[in-house]
Amino acid sequence: MSIEQKDHILGFLEKGIRFDGRKLDEYRPITVERGFSENAEGSARVTIGDTEVLAGVKMSIMEPYSDTPDEGTMMINAELLPLSNPDFEPGPPGIQSIEIARIVDRGIRESKAIDTKKLCLKKGEKVWSITVDICPINDNGNLFDASALAVLAALKDAKFPSYDGTVIDYKKKTKESLPLKKLPISCTVIKIDNHFIVDPTNEEEKKVDSRLTVEVEEDGTLCALQKGGDKPLTAEDIDKMVGIGIEKSKELKKFL
Amino acid sequence: MGYTKRNDGRKFDETRPIEAKAGIIKRADGSAYFKMGKTVAYAAVYGPREIHPKFLQNPTKGKLRCYYNMMPFSSVGDRVRPGANRRAKEIAMVTEKAILPVIDLSKFPNSVIDVFIELPQTDAGTRCAGICAASIALADAGILMSDMVAAVSIGRVDDKLVVDLDYSEESYEGGTVADIPMAVISRTGEISLLQMDGNLSREDLKKAVEMAKKACSKIDKIQRDALKNKYEVKK
Questions:
Q1: Contact call for B27 and A139, based on CB within 8 A
Q2: Among A191, B138, B187, B202, which one has the highest count of C-beta atoms within 10 angstroms of its own C-beta?
Q3: A25-69, pLDDT tens digit by residue?
């Protein structure tokens, strides 16, 4: 990013507005469309402004891990498709996609959003395995929050395929939804200079000093945090950012 | 006996319902959405841009690079493992060859035009949907093209030749099946993609090529309409 552009963004922030006219703590318009796919067990398309992310759920049956013989498993994966951003390259997942997948994964895992005990079919032998894949279509910033929202919406949309005890019939979906107990919302707060903003666009992301992703349960309890960016945060910064995260998560929750 | 009625009630020479849109991915230089029945393809074009690593640069002509990828949740049944497998690489290669004849790469020295095809949902005919989307996306990106390319799969299901197989026809068990994906350059009627698996008589192949040309001229119109829809000045 050029110095001019950087100054331009800063100049705006001093005045309390953004590049695109938004307030500092204002998200772009959000849409959530559930069930765009007939083939996935669950799916959702989320748009935040021009950013568009797809998430799809696939279910299968596997042997449980030996340390949790009566619990189903869950995996979140992100593929930063080179179709969605000129800077993304084809090939195995880079650190950026791994970070997105792991943050979303932690929020869901640590809040115990999915009752994994209910995914057990036969202790020590058979459990349901849930995989959610995140695929951005257009990346114009804030893939973190868009991905987290898409994953939750896809999990909410998911229906078990029919299973007769030996084979899964993927063509027949049952009416049974996943055992979801909680909906951990992700809100990423950005610090640029001395300003705190949410929902950065691609230009703003290039100017980030530090970043804090706050995953919040419905009652305001934090279930996952991740600091990013090159610059450190003070204790006051953290408190302020967490406050913004908790506040904004209430808005985001309405879209689920 | 024989294949007398198609599973979804289509006529034998009828494609599945098609929906096409241009310019749906803002970050890309050109993009398209192409839906054929339940098969959905996105295509994004980036470029012409500098090619890396540098030794790939050619001062006399540019390079067209296509990628084909099924999203992990795109198919019925097992999750598709991410990453390019042999099948994806071959499809990417034949997609390149299908499009290459309409692009004059000598106009883009030292550069690459990247075409990324992504399938969020599949029900047979993905390479054809990918080519159709790619052709719209390239035009949307303003890449100099001598023509458009459309693609469709012609199949022989038991005793009948049919246009645009869906998965239930591709896996028909009442008789033998041949699947012939073809790409047609719209104005010249030349064939730039031809593959076949199954078994087929020479006579049937001849008929299949004619059927593909007919179906592709209809698809071509839908592709052009998608572009017009984006660029036409509304009165």
A1: yes
A2: B138
A3: 999 999 999 999 999 999 999 999 999 999 999 999 999 999 999
Give the closest-approach CA distance of B73 to chain A in angstroms.
5
Task: Note the pLDDT tens digit of each residue in B150-196.
Answer: 999 999 999 999 999 999 999 998 889 999 999 999 999 999 999 99
Domain boundaries, chain B: 18-227
Residues 39-98 in B contacting A (C-alpha not used; CB under 8 Å): 42-44, 46, 49, 67, 69, 71-79, 82-84
> Distance between CA atoms of B150 and B145, rounded to whole angstroms?
14
Answer whether B79 sits within 8 Å of A58, measured CB to CB. Answer: yes
Q: What CATH architecture is B18-227? A: 2-Layer Sandwich (3.30)
Range of the domain at A217: 3-253
Residue type, B208: A
Q: A85, B27: Cβ pair inside 8 Å? A: yes
| Number of domains chain A contains | 1
Q: Are A46 and A31 in contact (CB under 8 A)?
A: yes
Give ipTM to 2 decimals: 0.93
Q: Would the CB atoms of A138 and B27 count as touching at under 8 Å?
A: yes
Q: Which of B25, B28, B67 sits opposite A90 (nearest CB)?
A: B67
